[in-house]
Write a structure and sequence with these properties.
about 280 residues, seven-stranded mixed beta sheet
Length: about 280
């Protein structure tokens, strides 16, 4: 990876600023700059893009994004201890890095970004799934971002790309695949991080579709999938009986067996059921 002139190794940065990773903040740092460059490259060409990064910590991935040519990086960091280290990166890349201190769940960052926008982050494990769901379920689609390249625990990553009739298939897969193309592009062992977590991790790349894969009302689809997968061991005629008094007839009308369970039903069929419910 091309070096950013004047910046010390990340281990020295962590030592100088006493940046011991905190479990309560979901922090696990990647210190190998070759690895952070691979993550940055997995998002595609960054030269004409603004990048939103959440949880940069001491700035390993931030350096990778800048060195790989990102037009502008907006980094949101909750931990004030990390701000001096990030300020050093900003000084080495004038005009290309904006650091916002605060909680990514509470901040509106869109005013700081110019389209096209890619979101690339080694997300804090304690907020990663919630952030993903928010990015997948905006009030207006297409969203403000064109792609997401995000680090998760491997089990979460597998839930995002899962197919029907597999153990990881569920509501997260449906929400992601309804509006995006999703694939796992990189897997990492625990020792890639400091401190090493107890689980493997994976990077998922999601590309926003111009329109959802199948037509459906978003609110209705989210309600149906929530009810179906909250009681995934039940037959759909039982788990969805609160939707309509004639739910068995509605299921049959869209080609779903009332005795089927949620994990057996594909995205297209769930969307067909959502149209049926919303239309009546």
């Amino acid at each position: 990876m091309p070096a950013i002139d004047g910046l010390p190794p990340l281990r020295e940065v962590i030592r100088a600023h006493d940046l011991v990773a905190r479990k309560q903040l979901g922090q696990n740092f990647i210190l190998d700059l070759n690895l952070t460059a691979r993550i940055a490259r997995s998002a595609g060409d960054l030269a004409a893009c603004d990048v939103l990064e959440v949880g940069p910590g001491p700035g390993g991935l931030t350096r990778g994004l800048l060195a790989e040519g990102a037009r502008h990086v907006v980094a949101v960091e909750k931990d004030p201890r990390c701000l001096p280290a990030l300020a050093e990166i900003a000084a080495a890349c004038p005009g290309r890095l904006t650091v916002l201190q605060g909680d990514a769940l509470a901040l509106d960052v869109t005013a700081h970004l110019t389209a096209p926008v890619r979101i690339i982050a080694n997300l804090p494990y304690n907020v990663g799934t919630e952030l993903l769901i928010r990015w997948l379920t905006p009030d207006v689609w297409p969203p403000f971002w064109t792609s997401l390249t995000l680090m998760f625990q491997r089990e979460v990553a597998e839930r995002i790309v899962a197919k029907p009739r597999t153990g990881h298939y569920g509501r997260l897969a449906l929400l992601a695949q309804w509006r995006c193309d999703a694939q796992i592009v990189l897997t990492l062992p625990p020792e890639a991080f400091t401190p090493a977590p107890k689980v493997h991790s994976a990077v998922v790349h999601l590309t926003a579709l111009a329109e959802p894969r199948y037509p459906a009302d978003a609110g209705t689809l989210m309600r149906i999938t929530a009810m179906a997968f909250n009681q995934r061991r039940k037959m759909l005629r039982s788990s969805l009986k609160g939707l309509a008094p004639d739910i068995e007839a509605r299921l049959l009308s869209v080609g779903i067996a009332p005795t089927a369970r949620a994990e057996e039903i594909g995205l297209e069929s769930f969307c067909a059921l959502a149209r049926n419910i919303a239309g009546n």
